[in-house]
Amino acid sequence: MYLRSSSPTGVRFLASVKQGNSLNSSARAAGIHKEIGYRWLRERYLQLRQEGNSPTEATDSLGFTTSRLPAWEAAVSGATDRHHLQVNIEVESVFWKAFNRGQTPTQSAAAAAVGRSTAYRWLQVRFDRLRGSKVTLQRCQVLLRLTAQRCHSFERERLARLTKEKNTAAAAQRAAVLTSNRYADAVLASTVSEAQQRRAERDTKYWQLMREGKSNAEACRLLGMQRQTGTSLRRANNYQIPSLIPRPAAGRYLDVRERLQIADLLELGYSMRQVAREMGRQPSTIKRELDRHRDAEGRYLPRTADHDACLQRARPKIHKLVASPRLRGLVQRKLNRCWSPDEISGWMKKTYPEDHELRICPETIYRSLLLREGQGLHKRYAAKLRTGRRIRKTRWRTRTGSGSRIRNMKMIDERPAEVETRLEAGHWEGDLIVGVGSVSAMVTLRERKTHYGIIVNLPHDHTAASVNAAVTSAFATLPPSLKRTLTWDQGTEMASHEALTKATGVPVFFAERSSPWQRGANENFNGLVRQYFPKGTNLAVHSTRHVNHVMRELNTRPRKNLAYDTPAARFREEHNAPARLVG
After folding, report:
1. Among candidates 9, 64, 72, which has minimal Cα distance to 36?
2. 549 DSSP β-pair partners
3. Residue 189: band (very low, low, confident or very high) from pLDDT cuts 50, 70, 90
4. Is the bond into 316 cis (omega within 30 degrees of 0)?
5. 485 forms bridges with which residues in the sheet?
6. Per-residue CA distances from 452 to 346, 455, 554, 577 (Å)
7. Which of 541, 572, 557 has the alpha carbon at shortest distance from 479?
8. How far apart are CA 41 and CA 304, in angstroms?
9. What is the C-alpha separation between 126 and 124, in angstroms, rounded?
10. Bridge partners of residue 508, in order along the sequence
11. Across all residues in the chain, what is the average pLDDT?
């Protein structure tokens, strides 16, 4: 059978040569003689030269050079697509001159001294070229002066030929895919040297002697090798004799055989999803493999990819915060400002989008600070975390209690539905943080959409009257569009909520008992505030200026749920937005 360079075998061979493999090894892996490989390389070289490439560009595209290049170059000028058994081209030109003068195909054939069948074969070739150039069937019939019957006959034969070629190509493609496993095995086998084969046979005999109860020294003496070699074999296998039953592959990592198969299927024109389906892998696995290991020119080289993957899997790795002083410095500066690891990670991704070395996940920072074996950050920075802990606490205990009832409460289920959507600003959540001895306190308010927070210090008491005055003063400077609802827990500081609503025009809604998640925004804000005003401390010692400074610092920290924008920027946008009717 005559093998073409456009066949799947030819594509595999040319791709192997282009990847840098030798002609002999590429031919051996493809299962062809090296002279067939030379013929395919010559055909590809002539094709590249006819497309306008220079000799240097053609050899670079092939990835191959040989002493036969001068002979190939001499054949460039004489290359033609006519078969050597075809009628001479001068005879065919005589036929077309007679046909163009208006003679019939039979008369034109007689003028050229060829048979009538040859004339109609030339007409059919011209018909196929015109149809391939998108000329309509009616136009072809007029140009070639064909009868309607003859014209439709040519068209049927053309379509049948195209269908056959398409089916043949699809069958060859499918056959190549089905043999992709064998091709990968052949490539692996063709690259194993004789020394490696002898070493593998020696290792097999060594382990067989060990199974028979021989000692290491005795097995080495029988095989004629040094004792240190046997000791190295045992150490590499963790001093265990390998089982005769082959272990199934874990399947977690791609091996060199699968990488060879990926490269083969890609050269055959398969998409990533088709490659994944043929190999029984997920498309995301194939995509990550190609994204990680393609070179600058977009080529996927399986041997290089396997080598790089082995280096990447090597353990232990240098901790990222240890390896990059610049990254460590940025993280330390942000921790000093009491930023959370998540805020640090998101800020870096947004500030340095092109610098992938300045990427770190929050868990890496937490592990550096809270694990005993953590590296890269000093443990003193753990005090800058929101909880202030130096070790991780695995479980939270929620204390429940009971308090006095508040009259005329509107429960949270009566709150307008648009509060839950967070599509409009002006819906607040509030609470108290209490100092040592429950004497001093602070009112904390947080807006649900922009996450803007307000802190008001109450140094002397936190009665209902004091809380009402603090909330009223906080809302006094806000426009009506930013004063819609207020959600609070059932603390006694809200006993005068009706008076607060009358003073501010903001209705107060109450969350269920022991349900802090119903006021999640405010609970999160209280955790941020506690970084600056820890539990068990006297809150009365803090001046109004210091409290405002803390409030300003919290509102200028980037937030993950704001796409790492700051609450202050979002709140400013809402404050400056055109006035809308409050309903």
Report:
1. 9
2. none
3. low
4. yes
5. 427
6. 18, 10, 9, 16
7. 572
8. 24
9. 5
10. 486
11. 85
User: CB-based burial of residue 218 (10 Å sphere; 0-12 exposed, 13-18 middle, 19+ buried)?
Assistant: middle
The answer, yes or no, to whether residue 404 has pLDDT greater than 80, is: no
Residues present in the chain in total: 583
If we measure between CA atoms, which residue out of 63, 108, 59, 118 comes closest to residue 86?
Answer: 118
Helix (H) or strand (E) holding 294: none
Give percent of the chain with pLDDT exceeding 70.
Answer: 89
Report the alpha-carbon distance of residue 220 to residue 225 in Å, rounded.
5
8 Å CB contact between 460 and 429:
no
Per-residue pLDDT at 164 exceeds 80: yes
Query: Smallest Cα–Cα separation from 529: which of 460, 453, 475, 458?
Result: 453
Locus of tokens 């309903």: 583
Contact 137, 143 (CB under 8 A): no
Kindly state the tokens that stand for 548: 């405002």
Angle 492-496-500 from CA coordinates, rounded to 5°: 125
End-to-end CA distance of the chain: 84
Q: Which residue, among 468, 465, 467, 459, has the nearest Cα to 441 in the 3D structure?
A: 459
Q: What is the pLDDT of residues 103-121, one digit of tens each?
A: 888 888 888 888 888 888 8
316 touches 349 (CB < 8 A): no
CA gap 39, 387 in Å, rounded:
73
Complete DSSP assignment for 500-555 = HHHHH---EEEPPTT-GGGGHHHHHHHHHHHTTS-TTS-GGGS-HHHHHHHHHHHH
Q: 324: which 2 tokens?
A: 């990059």
- What is the helix (H) or strand (E) element at residue 431, kind and residue range? strand 427-434
Q: What is residue 565's DSSP assignment? A: B
Return the sign of the alpha-carbon dihedral for residues 233, 236, 239, 243. negative
**Sign of the C-alpha dihedral computed for residues 315, 321, 324 and 325 taken in this order:** negative
In the numeric block, which tokens belong to residue 506? 């903001």
Res 56: pLDDT: 87
Please tell me the number of Cα atoms within 13 Å of 160 on its side-chain side: 6
Please, are residues 486 and 467 in contact by the beta-carbon 8 Å criterion? no
User: What is the number of other CB atoms lying within 10 angstroms of the CB of residue 556?
Assistant: 12
| Angle in degrees, 0-180, between the axes of helices 148-178 and 180-190, rounded to the nearest 10 | 50
d(CA 22, CA 307): 19
How many CA atoms does the CB half-sphere of 447 hold within 13 Å?
27
- Report residue 83 as tokens: 């078969």
Q: Are 336 and 364 a contacting pair, CB within 8 Å?
A: no
- pLDDT at residue number 75: 80
CB-neighbour burial class of residue 421 (10 A; exposed 0-12, middle 13-18, buried 19+):
exposed
> 456 forms bridges with which residues in the sheet?
443
As a dihedral over the C-alpha atoms of residue 273, residue 277, residue 278, residue 283, rounded to 10 degrees, the angle is 50
Rg (CA), the chain: 40
Q: What DSSP string describes 415-429?
A: S-THHHHT-SS-EEE
- Are 99 and 109 contacting, i.e. CB atoms less than 8 angstroms apart? no
Amino acid identity at 140: C
HSE-CB of 376 using CA atoms within 13 angstroms: 26
CB 511 within 8 A of CB 494: no
- 462 Cβ partners below 8 Å, 6+ apart? 432, 434, 440, 441, 443, 493
